[in-house]
Amino acid sequence: MKIVVNITSYVGTGGNAEHYYAKVWELDTKDSIYVVAQRALMGHGEELERTFTDVKETRRLNQKDDTRQWKIGGLTERFGSIKQIKNFVSDKYPDSDLAFLWFNNMESEDRDIVERNPAIPEKTGEKIKIQNFEGFSSEFVNLTEGSIHEVLGVPARYQGKETPGFEGVWVWGVTEPVKILTHEYIKV
Fold first, then answer.
1. Which site from 2, 65, 108, 118 is most exposed, i.e. has the minimal number of CB atoms within 10 Å?
2. Among positive and negative, which fits the CA dihedral 56, 58, 59, 61?
């Protein structure tokens, strides 16, 4: 199951977001969450609702709205922050891949995507030998000078995102696929 969340906000007279809303789409597809986020059609979806559980929040909203409609146990579409929306959705859909889009932003940043069980890229059958490797990270400790690695296909999250000048191949780092630039390896 893939979940796409479109976040919007209500902006008050001071220009700051006062509260947030979210629409949720539940999609049963085998496509990666990155593909789903790129193709998402915004404008439809189920309005995300939550139950009030905090007395201070209901008091603050009743005072702010000059009303007595907000009560503990009541439903609301209002959220106090984007983080609150993300936590709520993550708890509601613990096993689903999630994409959070802001104001219909189709160019969603990777940090707004939660991939619970990422697809493992398949091995291509090619091998490379590391030489003149310049990467530094705890993810690269297995990529030592002269070490040989099997080449992987491009991970789903990076498909269609090639950057000119940064061509290379993908291999396993310590815990995830990493890209080795063309000048840092030779084919075996």
1. 65
2. positive
